[in-house]
Amino acid sequence: MTLGCTPIDQIQIPTKCRDEFPPFLRAMQYIYTNKNINEHVFRLLESAICTKNATGRPGMNMWTIFVLASARLCLNTDYDRLHYLANADSLLRQMLGVHDGITHGRDFDRQTIIDNVSLLNDEVLREINQIIVGVGHNLVKKKETEALRIMVDSFVVEANVHFPTDYNLLWDSGRKCIDVLCHLMDTNSAYCTGWRKIDDWRKKLKRRMLRLSRATADKSKNRDKRMKESAENYLFTARSLSQKVHTVRQLNPLDIVEAAMVKQLNHFGDMLDKHIDLVERRILKGEKIPHEEKLFQQN
Prior knowledge:
- By secondary structure, this protein is an all-alpha fold.
- It contains eleven helices and no strands.
- It starts with 20 loop residues before the first helix and ends in a 15-residue tail after the last helix.
- The mean pLDDT is about 85.
């Protein structure tokens, strides 16, 4: 420890805070002060980091590496932010044992952090995680038969989800047919025949789908006429694509990988034909589609 540095077991960590970092620091403090956990964790760190002797690594000791690697996972952050926290966050620097005392404590170079933290691979971190989870169970579980109750946080990720109309699902089916065909063409050049303009097929089908979507939302007097014209053009492109896809579906795959992709192509080809039929019946023929015939998602 440097002069004026707070002992790790005496660090005051804020409890009235909803951020994820204070609970992480409290966990690190508990691991450091608990002898049994400390020995297990450092034994794993030694096996992963110390290749020749138990002196750690150039620029960092094992505790510093462990805390920084855990902080990176806890915050789900990159090395740039980790570099900033290691040199500017006072609580983290206290936990590392290098907090500024009477004199300015040491700073960590970004490359030093990367070289050392990257030594802890997923396998070692999973083993350490099992130790910590086991200790956590003993702390919060009063009886062996008592159910474990925990609280977790969640977050929203971006996804491309749209309302499942029949003409949207028709586009999805055609798009997936083209995606599978691209993989087949990369695997075997025999599937390339007749697909020189495969990207144009994708653009043309999407363009016709968007025109039908705009015509459906139109509120003018000529809405029905425009919608039927757009539907006819859309269905003409979709039928042409279906015919070309059908020729590929008749080819015999050479291995199990191609067979799996052809199976996918058959599925999306069937979905393409089904939604061609649904769009034609609903928009061009004015039928009301029974509920049991409708599809609400693509698998």
